[in-house]
Design brief:
Chain lengths: ~120, ~375
């Protein structure tokens, strides 16, 4: 199993790692028992995701896909961001080994969970 | 950045140049099929029997009790399936442990699909097979007990002698997968009291694709491979003479050098273990504190995942391995660590260093220099670590 250069580059230098204090939405997906857990924090202003950060427990692919989704999403309108699928994440990374495909779903689901959390919080305000 | 540091000798080892030298004439000079009648075949036939004597000597066995195989997996398959089918009139029950290598576990699972019953005995927190559970599992239908000599992931050495006593009393065959111990510590088939024992060349500086099965005289066993009359009709197929010669030479060298070498390796391993324990918090050292292979260090680093550590070690020129699910084709973490009671999320963060002949003190320094910062970086990224 060999990762693409792009995966390794994102894994070694992940973008947007960390937490956002007073985040507008937080998505937590995965399960440490299964070997991956991702927490995604978003900041939203005028329906635009202005900031995004992640923390991930997982393999090289899980960290690289987390990093990739933050890059794809940052600065996008929420509706646009939700159109991003795991396929876009895989393409952005120049592919993933077959047994690592599920990691890209983690990224997509993480984003959806964070947006859902944001919308819920907004309704309750 | 330093050079390449190989700390994965439990997976494979570099073939000793003296072994390679011994093998070469049997590729291009004495290439005959040893079964042929002409004089030219004599050389390869003698080389084969010579190698058999060397393997036997290392194990304190008789040469007639050694059958060459195409590696360790074949030896395990041969022992387990061969005994199971040859003794199926006597019974259909096999006892093994939950921490065996997949060559044993998956062979047993396949036998279950063929109508055999298998009991998978548990282990304690150090990975030592539970002897009471093993005793209780025995029925009058039990024909074989197969327990590894030392575990490949954590290095724990199993109480084979005690198991042999139990097996002997009940007249049950005992097989041990000694693939991790042969050539690394004293392995004497009489002292151990086993009926069958598997070994593999490439785990102790021999060639890949060659191994052997010790079959004590009198053991009822069926062949795995059928064909010509090779290996006293126990294993068909033209013999891999270069490989067999290489295995013989490997055993000869191990006999002379292994003990001293293993003590040197243990000193390095102990320093690595101590250094990691001092420099990194929230880790668990896996395996038995004393009854453990001298070159094996297996640990769990909490809050992070094994493959991500391996990739960063690799980036720094260090080759190690992990029982992490992500380094295999399954999504389950190490069956060995989970059988030892380690929670799955912790088992995902395992690292295995297996030291060998080329390793130096400088290699240990290098790991102790880079590993703490790798762990720190990954932990900063982890949502599990709440500082």
């Amino acid at each position: 199993m060999v990762y693409s250069e792009k995966v390794m580059e994102h894994f070694m230098n992940p973008r947007n790692v960390g937490e956002i204090e007073n985040a507008d939405g937080i998505g937590e997906v995965g399960n440490p028992v299964c070997g991956d857990l991702m927490t995604l924090y978003i900041k939203v202003q005028d329906n635009v995701i202005t900031d995004i950060k992640f923390k991930t427990f997982g393999c090289g692919a899980a960290i690289a896909t987390s990093s990739m989704i933050t890059e794809l999403v940052k600065g996008k309108m929420i509706e646009e961001a939700l159109k991003i699928t795991n396929k876009d994440v895989i393409e952005g990374l120049d592919g993933l080994p077959p047994i690592k495909m599920h990691c890209s779903l983690l990224a997509e689901e993480g984003l959806k969970a964070a947006v859902e959390d944001y919308r819920k919080r907004k309704e309750n305000k | 950045m330093g050079g390449f540091i190989y700390l994965d000798h439990g997976s494979s080892t570099p073939t000793d140049p003296r072994v390679v030298d011994a093998m070469i004439p049997y590729f291009n000079k004495f290439y005959s099929n040893p079964s042929s009648v002409y004089k030219f075949a004599k050389e390869s036939n003698e080389a084969k029997e010579n190698a058999r004597e060397k393997v036997a000597k290392l194990l304190s066995a008789n040469p007639e009790e050694i059958v060459f195989t195409g590696g360790g997996t074949e030896a395990d398959n041969f022992a387990i399936k061969g005994v199971a089918f040859a003794n199926s009139k006597r019974g259909n029950h096999i006892i093994t442990s939950k921490i065996e290598h997949h060559a044993v576990l998956n062979t047993c699972k396949w036998l279950e699909s063929q109508g055999f019953k298998v009991t998978y005995v548990g282990v304690d927190k150090y990975g030592v097979v539970d002897l009471n559970e093993l005793k209780d599992a025995i029925t009058d239908r039990t024909i074989l007990i197969t327990i590894m000599h030392a575990n490949n992931e954590v290095g724990t050495i199993e109480p084979i002698q005690e198991i042999a006593e139990i097996a002997k009393q009940k007249d049950i065959y005992l097989h041990t997968d000694a693939i991790q111990t042969v050539g690394k510590m004293s392995v004497d088939v009489n002292e151990l009291g086993v009926n069958l024992l598997s070994l593999s060349g490439h785990k102790f500086y021999g060639p890949k694709g060659v191994g052997a099965l010790f079959i004590k005289k009198g053991v009822k066993i069926d062949s795995l491979l059928h064909g010509g009359y090779h290996e006293r009709n126990k294993r068909a197929g033209t013999e891999n003479i270069p490989g067999i010669v290489g295995l013989g030479r490997t055993c000869e060298i191990a006999m002379e050098e292994a003990e001293e070498e293993e003590n040197r390796i243990k000193t390095l391993r102990d320093r690595l273990e101590k250094g990691i324990t001092e420099k990194i918090d929230d880790i668990i050292i896996n395996g038995h504190p004393e009854r453990r292979l001298k070159g094996t260090l297996n640990l769990c680093v909490k809050y992070i995942e094994g493959e991500s550590m391996l990739l960063q070690l690799d980036y720094n020129g260090i080759a190690a391995s992990s029982g992490s699910a992500c380094t295999s084709d399954s999504l389950e973490p190490s069956h060995v660590l989970t059988a030892m009671g380690i929670p799955p999320e912790v088992a995902h963060g395992s690292l295995r260093f297996t030291l060998g002949r080329e390793n130096t003190s400088g290699d240990i320094d290098r790991v102790l220099e880079v590993l703490p910062s790798i762990v720190k970086r990954l932990r900063e990224m982890s949502p599990l670590r709440k500082d």
